[in-house]
């Protein structure tokens, strides 16, 4: 794994390099995605089924697009590891307990003058969850996208996922969805599934929001339908940064870097340290692990493309580059990780200490693993209960409460040239205007 001295030049080059991974650079696929979206919008089920046959080689129709109870039962019976059900249940409980603490409630503030101000919190009515299929099926992502919606009180949660050639859905996905409480599952994937959720078809009713990860086509489709529906984000490739000093265990650091590099060739894995000795040791352990792990081809390409060990002069420079990159996952392996954490401004999820490795957050700890990528942690947050609610402002004033404010409101409105606004206040405190005949 390459070791680079951190200075202004290397910092600039690395930041530019990482930006190449942004979904905003997927424009060459945009025309194909827009064609799919428009076709499904205009032709509904016919386009949906045609694309499923073309891309997934599955013969799906209005009669079999919806997953049945029998298919879910079959999924439980066909699990390669039956223990997965109990593991999913344990993980689900941790995720639910964590997200329960995020719940928001309506509130009202009344005063003696007759004014009432407040906020009404309402869950979204219908949410669509996209789940990748095939080898990229991750039951953990099903839980992370569905549970906060359930906690928020969403009325109906719809899941879409591409079927195999046999028209069946990955059993791990079905089991996770059933345990999480998904209301209905449709066998459709890709940009065409996003179009169905956004516009509606004869079989799939339009949703209010779409969440969940997917490939380039899914990411671009979500970006394109934003406005017709809400979306969680346009997610980029996975990434991890480890901040470490001389106290860190190089074997742990190397293993953690590779835990994200194995996702795909565009994944980013970066160590920033003040210790040259640690940098060298981590590099050796990375090479050792890569030679032993199954996904070594992906690991090798990922590290060649976006893997770095950066050696900084001091911890201030380490914190600076961490805040600039704003990594999806940030591990802090320093002598006092809690102190270091207080100086970190930008990160999706922060893991403190040598036994808080990134996979703990992926599967079991409870916080959501749907995180901002490509530097968007500077202004975005992890998926949460907040993503599945909306808020309405409440205003109620009596005549007595409005009267002392009326002159100021009218003057404000007139300053903006909006005389009808001013009149709406004025008429409440003046006699009738000589008839309106």
TrEMBL record:
Family assignment from sequence similarity: Belongs to the histidinol dehydrogenase family.
EC numbers, comma separated: 1.1.1.23
Species in which this protein is naturally found: Eubacterium segne
Described function: Catalyzes the sequential NAD-dependent oxidations of L-histidinol to L-histidinaldehyde and then to L-histidine.
Protein name: Histidinol dehydrogenase
UniProt-recorded Gene Ontology molecular function terms: histidinol dehydrogenase activity
Active-site residue numbers: 328 (proton acceptor), 329 (proton acceptor)
The organism's taxonomic lineage, starting at the top: Bacteria, Bacillati, Bacillota, Clostridia, Eubacteriales
NCBIfam families (UniProt xref): hisD
Pathway listed: Amino-acid biosynthesis; L-histidine biosynthesis; L-histidine from 5-phospho-alpha-D-ribose 1-diphosphate: step 9/9
Annotated binding of NAD(+), by residue: 130, 192, 215
Note on cofactor: Binds 1 zinc ion per subunit.
CDD domains: Histidinol_dh
Enzyme class, broadest EC rank: oxidoreductase
Annotated positions binding substrate: 238, 260, 263, 329, 362, 416, 421
């Amino acid at each position: 794994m390459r070791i680079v001295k951190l200075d202004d030049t290397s910092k600039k080059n690395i930041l530019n390099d990482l930006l190449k991974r942004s979904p905003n650079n997927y424009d060459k696929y945009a025309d194909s995605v827009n064609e799919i979206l428009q076709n499904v919008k205009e032709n509904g089920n016919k386009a949906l089924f045609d694309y499923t046959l073309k891309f997934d080689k599955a013969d799906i129709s209005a009669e079999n697009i919806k997953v049945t109870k029998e298919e879910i039962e079959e999924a439980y019976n066909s699990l390669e590891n039956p223990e997965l059900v109990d593991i999913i249940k344990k993980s689900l409980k941790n995720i639910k307990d964590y997200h329960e603490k995020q719940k928001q409630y309506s509130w009202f503030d009344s005063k003696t003058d007759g004014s009432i101000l407040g906020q009404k919190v309402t869950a979204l009515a219908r949410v669509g969850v996209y789940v990748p299929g095939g080898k990229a099926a991750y039951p953990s992502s099903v839980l992370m996208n569905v549970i906060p919606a359930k906690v928020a009180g969403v009325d109906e949660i719809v899941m879409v996922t591409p079927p195999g050639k046999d028209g069946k859905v990955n059993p791990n996905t079905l089991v996770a969805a059933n345990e999480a409480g998904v209301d209905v599952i449709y066998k459709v994937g890709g940009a065409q599934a996003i179009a169905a959720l956004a516009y509606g078809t004869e079989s799939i009713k339009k949703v209010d929001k779409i969440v969940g990860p997917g490939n380039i086509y899914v990411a671009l489709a979500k970006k394109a339908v934003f406005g017709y529906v809400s979306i969680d984000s346009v997610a980029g490739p996975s990434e991890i940064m480890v901040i470490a000093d001389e106290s860190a265990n190089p074997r742990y650091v190397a293993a953690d870097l590779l835990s994200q590099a194995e996702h795909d060739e565009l994944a980013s894995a970066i160590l920033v340290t003040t210790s040259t000795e640690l940098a060298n040791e981590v590099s050796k352990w990375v090479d050792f692990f890569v030679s032993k792990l199954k996904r070594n081809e992906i690991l090798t390409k990922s590290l060649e493309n976006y893997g770095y060990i950066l050696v900084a002069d001091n911890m201030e420079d380490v914190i600076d580059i961490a805040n600039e990159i704003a990594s999806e996952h940030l591990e802090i392996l320093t002598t006092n990780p809690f102190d270091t954490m207080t100086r970190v401004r930008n990160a999706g999820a922060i893991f403190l200490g040598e036994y808080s490795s990134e996979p703990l957050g992926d599967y079991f700890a409870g916080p959501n693993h749907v995180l901002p990528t490509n530097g968007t942690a500077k202004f975005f947050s992890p998926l949460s209960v907040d993503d599945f609610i909306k808020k309405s402002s409440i205003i109620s004033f009596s005549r007595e409460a409005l009267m002392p404010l009326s002159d100021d409101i009218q003057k404000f409105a007139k300053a903006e040239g909006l005389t009808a606004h001013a009149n709406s206040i004025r008429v409440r405190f003046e006699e009738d205007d000589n008839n309106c005949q």
